[in-house]
Write a structure and sequence with these properties.
The chain has one domain. Helix content is about 85%, strand content about 0%. The chain has helices at about 10-40, 45-55, 55-85, 90-110, 110-120, 125-160, 165-185, 185-195, 200-215, 220-225.
Length: about 230
C-alpha cells in the first residue's frame, strides 16, 4: 500500500500565516498613514511634490516596504490555499487566483509612486501619479474582495475554523467591494462613506489574523476533511 505524502502541520501553517498577516496589517498601516499619509497633502500638489523631494528616502522606503509586504501576501495566499484546500480544491484554487491577480495589480501600481518621485519638478504630474496609485489600489481591492468572499465561504463550511470568522471575512470582502466601486463610480460618495465602510474589513482581517496566530485550525477536524 502506498503511503500518503507527508504534509506540513496545519498548526504550523496557521501560526506562520497569522504572523505574516500581522506583519502585513501593521506594515500596510504604517505605509498608508506615516509614509504616503505623511507626505501626500490632499488638494495641494505643490506641497506633495516638495515633501517627496525633501524626504525622498522615506518615499523610497515606503515603496520598498510595500514590495516586501506583497511577498508576504504571496506566501499567505499559499498558506490559505493549503489550509482550505480540503474543503474544496476548486474553490481554494479560485481563491488563490483572485489573490494572485490582486497582488499583481498592487505590485504594478507602485510604478506611479516611482514616477511621482522622478517628476517632483512638475506638481501636476506628481498629483496625477498619486491619483493613479489611489485608483489602482481600489482596483486591486476588488480582486482582494473576491478572495475574501470565497475564503469566507470556505471557512464557514470547513468545520475546523469558526463560522463567525468566515462571516466576518466575507463582510470584509463586501466592505472592500462597496468602497472600490464607489471610488470608481461615485468618488464623492466614496469620500462620504470612507473610512466607516472599511471598519468591517478591519474587523474581518484582524479576526482571522489573530485566530490563526493564537488558536489555529482544529487539527482533528482538518485531518478528517483531508481523509475524506
Amino acid at each position: 500500500m502506498t503511503q500518503a505524502p507527508p504534509h506540513t502541520s496545519p498548526r504550523v501553517l496557521s501560526r506562520i500565516g497569522g504572523l505574516l498577516y500581522l506583519i502585513v496589517i501593521i506594515g500596510g498601516f504604517y505605509d498608508e498613514v506615516f509614509v504616503r499619509g505623511g507626505l501626500i497633502v490632499s488638494g495641494d500638489a505643490a506641497a506633495t511634490a516638495a515633501n517627496i523631494r525633501s524626504m525622498e528616502s522615506l518615499w523610497r522606503f515606503g515603496i520598498a516596504s510595500e514590495m516586501v509586504l506583497l511577498m508576504c501576501v504571496v506566501v499567505l495566499a499559499w498558506i490559505f490555499y493549503l489550509l482550505l484546500r480540503p474543503v474544496s480544491r476548486d474553490l481554494a484554487l479560485l481563491m488563490l487566483l483572485f489573490d494572485f491577480v490582486a497582488i499583481a495589480v498592487e505590485a504594478a501600481i507602485q510604478l506611479p509612486l516611482l514616477a511621482a518621485m522622478f517628476a517632483v519638478g512638475n506638481a501636476d504630474l506628481v498629483s496625477l501619479s498619486v491619483r493613479v496609485h489611489a485608483y489602482g489600489f481600489g482596483i486591486a481591492l476588488i480582486f482582494f474582495a473576491c478572495t475574501f468572499l470565497v475564503r469566507g465561504h470556505l471557512i464557514v463550511t470547513s468545520g475546523y475554523i469558526p463560522k463567525a470568522i468566515g462571516v466576518l471575512v466575507q463582510l470584509a470582502g463586501v466592505g472592500y467591494l462597496v468602497n472600490s466601486f464607489a471610488l470608481l463610480l461615485a468618488p464623492a460618495f466614496a469620500n462620504m462613506i470612507f473610512p466607516a465602510i472599511l471598519l468591517p474589513a478591519f474587523i474581518g482581517e484582524s479576526s482571522i489574523c489573530l485566530w490563526l496566530l493564537f488558536k489555529g485550525v482544529n487539527v482533528a477536524k482538518w485531518e478528517q476533511q483531508v481523509a475524506s
